[in-house]
Design brief:
mainly alpha, about 190 residues, elongated, 2 domains, 9 helices, Hydrophobic Seed Protein
């Protein structure tokens, strides 16, 4: 792991982990220690919270794919060793305020990245919008929230012949514009 190439994201999109998939690890102690250390690291690294939480579910009987994902997270962490904030002794108040502003910006960026990575493309999430799309009525607040969450997945839905008729219909475009979500041209 010392000579591995760093990466920017802790997990690939649409990665799925199963309890029964893959071979058992011969020694699960190392897996447990690594996940335990990553849990500790989530206090300062909000971008890995979600995936580490999922990996911690497999502590009892980890498999090789679970260990591969732990190694990927370590590669992501390795790429950020040089991140940090330096507080100098005797620094001015103006300097400290700029550091606090930088911290706030970093937290906002990381939370936004975590939300965008956490999207799971599932057309059933948009079931609350189905009545508004079929009837042409006004969408509910739940529908608008789900539509905003599923925005990154709309291109994928447009490629599915069963879903395309709903996503690209005039009523769907009306619902999307009411919710303030633009349907992409894919």
């Amino acid at each position: 792991m010392l000579v591995c190439k760093p990466i920017s994201t802790p997990v690939e999109a649409n990665t799925k982990l199963c309890v029964d998939e893959g071979k058992d690890l011969e020694d699960s102690t190392m897996y447990r220690q690594l996940v335990g250390s990553l849990i500790y690291l989530t206090m300062t690294r909000s971008d890995i919270c979600n995936v580490v939480g999922v990996l911690s579910r497999f502590m009892q009987k980890p498999k090789k794919p679970h260990l591969k994902l732990v190694q990927r997270i370590l590669r992501c962490v390795k790429g950020t060793f040089d991140f940090g904030i330096l507080y100098k002794k005797g620094g001015t108040l103006k300097m400290k305020v700029s550091y606090v502003a930088l911290c706030v910006i970093l937290v906002l960026l990381l939370s936004e990245a975590r939300v965008s990575l956490a999207v799971t493309c599932n057309a059933l999430e948009l079931s609350s919008c189905l009545s508004a799309i079929t009837s042409g009525g006004a969408p509910s607040g739940t529908c608008c929230n789900k539509l905003r969450e599923q925005r990154p997945c709309l291109c994928q839905y447009l490629k599915d012949p069963n879903l395309k008729q709903y996503v690209s219909s005039p009523n769907a475009r009306k619902v999307a514009s009411t919710c303030g979500v633009a349907i992409p041209n894919c």
